[in-house]
């Protein structure tokens, strides 16, 4: 059974119904949106978006191309891409972690027996920013995690200026993160993932 057949919020969703002019002719239709887990074949598109989003801000990427391929081979089910007319416009990549807090090892490891999802990166293509897509994608990702019975919470680390964004997504700050990258320091944040049984009974999970 495919993921789309059991996860209704990953099915293609039209953003808006076609509008017609008074004469009955269509004026325009916004591109249809599709949400799906990523595959290793998406790695280059993912890295191009990530590189543009992060290099100018922090000088480095959370994941390099080989690391993206690594996680999309190990745990593609913990990723989510937003596609419009077949074009990747935003994505999230995660992996499982088995400790209460993130450590340096969490940057490269996937712990199959873990119950926490470490969200490595969320990025939106430059031409689609300032449209709320990051918040929408995160909401869909958290809904998706609720259908995975082994997941209990989501963890991430971010710089100070991103804390308000993630707080609006429902994350709470845990304090300074143990992980450092060069001279960069991070705040660790978490979001509880609840309602597994309810979701399975009522949303086709």
Automatic annotation (TrEMBL):
It is an enzyme of class 2 (transferase). GO terms for molecular function: aralkylamine N-acetyltransferase activity. Its main location: cytoplasm. Its EC number is 2.3.1.87. Keywords: Acyltransferase, Biological rhythms, Cytoplasm, Melatonin biosynthesis, Phosphoprotein, Transferase. It comes from the Eukaryota. It catalyses: a 2-arylethylamine + acetyl-CoA = an N-acetyl-2-arylethylamine + CoA + H(+). Residues 33-194 form the N-acetyltransferase domain. PROSITE patterns: GNAT. SUPFAM superfamilies: Acyl-CoA N-acyltransferases (Nat). It is found in: Cytoplasm. One of its GO terms (cellular component) is cytoplasm. GO terms for biological process: circadian rhythm; melatonin biosynthetic process; response to light stimulus. Pathway: Aromatic compound metabolism; melatonin biosynthesis; melatonin from serotonin: step 1/2. Pfam families: Acetyltransf_1. Belongs to the acetyltransferase family. AANAT subfamily. This is Serotonin N-acetyltransferase.
């Amino acid at each position: 059974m495919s993921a789309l057949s059991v996860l209704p919020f990953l099915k293609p969703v039209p953003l808006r119904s076609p509008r017609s002019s008074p004469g009955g002719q269509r004026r325009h239709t916004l591109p249809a949106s599709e949400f799906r887990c990523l595959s290793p074949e998406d790695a280059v598109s993912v890295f191009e978006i990530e590189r543009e989003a992060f290099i100018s801000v922090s000088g480095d990427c959370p994941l390099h191309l080989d690391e993206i391929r690594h996680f999309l081979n190990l745990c593609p089910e913990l990723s989510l891409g937003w596609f419009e007319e077949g074009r990747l416009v935003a994505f999230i990549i995660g992996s499982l972690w088995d400790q209460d807090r993130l450590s340096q090892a969490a940057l490269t490891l996937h712990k199959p027996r873990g119950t926490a999802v470490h969200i490595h990166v969320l990025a939106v293509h430059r031409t689609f920013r300032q449209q709320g897509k990051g918040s929408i994608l995160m909401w869909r990702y958290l809904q998706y995690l609720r259908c995975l019975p082994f997941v209990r919470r989501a963890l991430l680390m971010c710089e100070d200026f991103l804390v308000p964004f993630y707080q609006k997504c429902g994350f709470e700050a845990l304090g300074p993160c143990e992980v450092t990258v060069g001279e960069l320091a991070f705040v660790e944040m978490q979001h509880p993932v609840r309602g597994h049984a309810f979701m399975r009974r009522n949303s086709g999970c």
